[in-house]
Amino acid sequence: MPSAASAASDSGRPVPPSLWRDSDFRRLWAGQTASQLGEHTGLVVLPLLAVLTLDAGAAQLGALRAAGQAPILMLSLFAGAWVDRWRTRTVMVLTDAGRALALAAVAVTCLPGGLGLPALVVITFAFGALSVFFDVAYQASLVRLVHPGLLVRGNSALEGSRSAAQMGGPALGGALVSLLSAPIAAGAGALFFALSFLSIRRIRGDESTPGRLERPARIWRRIHDGVRCVAGDAVLRTVCLASAAFQFSFAAVMTVHLLFLPRELHLSGTAVGLALAATGPGALLGSVLAARLPDRFGYGPVLVAAAAIGDGVFLCVPALPGSSAVTVPVLLAVAFVFGAGGQLVNVAIMAVRQAVTPRGMQGRVAATITFVGMGLSPLGSLLGGLLAAQWGLRTGLLVAAAAMMSSPAVMAMSPLARLGRTLPAPRSTPPG
User: Which of 11, 69, 217, 241 has the greatest CB tally within 10 Å of its CB?
Assistant: First the structure.
């Protein structure tokens, strides 16, 4: 891991005494907060539009969600190779602008005689493609902007803002779709991306100037180096496999869940948004715990326990009755616990991954794990739609929720579970 002196030299400026005194980090944090709020608003607006406005069925909703997740499988590896060669600020501002335009275009599909579900599928695909590049870029940007000793705090701050977005975005999106109009709901998301664009473009950190895009053979070699780095390290390999198990089953869960809430439990769009938004307060708690629990109990035990509790709580949802006084409170409690456990895992595992990864490989390793981990999400979404169509919403949700327990099982049987209170060091110097 680079020393404080080398980190300062790489960034061209002294190491700040506090994370929040670093103006570039503040701009990244503000932009990421706005971007996440726009993304979580959009992630609720798009499927709710399909279900409530365009009357999409289970299979159609599964296809729509798969279209949004397919770019992860198609583009993640290339995104990692390119981000390691570009200024991360450039990548983030361009993708913010593109996602703002994509959400603004949703209004056209909602007008009388509009383009309908096929156009919504195309827009959702474009939205997902741009999000792939933004997510890889912001993770690499944090490593380039902050001192290595502040990575956990930096991740905690960024994940805390994502928690706030998880709380406000779904509630805002559900309320706007239910009470006002789809164009306003989509326009709100577009506005947040515009704010993110304005904040991130003011980052002044001196990143090394990337060269021209390389020949295809060179790009493929860099992609291969990233895959080899993950496959050759036991900790990174486990992170990748656990992420794949979770993302596949969670995509199936959410496809059925978004149908289960309005159609089986008869919740309004506003109630659906609030039920989903309850993950936000839980995630805020998870962010706070992530800065404390690993130092006390060790990274491995915390990761396994948080994943088992956070994922396992979803098994309660299929048993809920519709139109009951306890339905919404239980949904809020489930979402809170899921948010807390999931956020604790996210922050801790990202710190582990960034610590293990050589500095020049951050973008490619993040992209490789995203490719394998979230690349199965489209198949999970399609499977969720199939389960709901063939077995019914309750049974389909129960099977999908049970499958989520495979992720903590992978962690428990791996070297990741034995990590102590100290973050491991990078295995070697990055190739190439």
Answer: 69
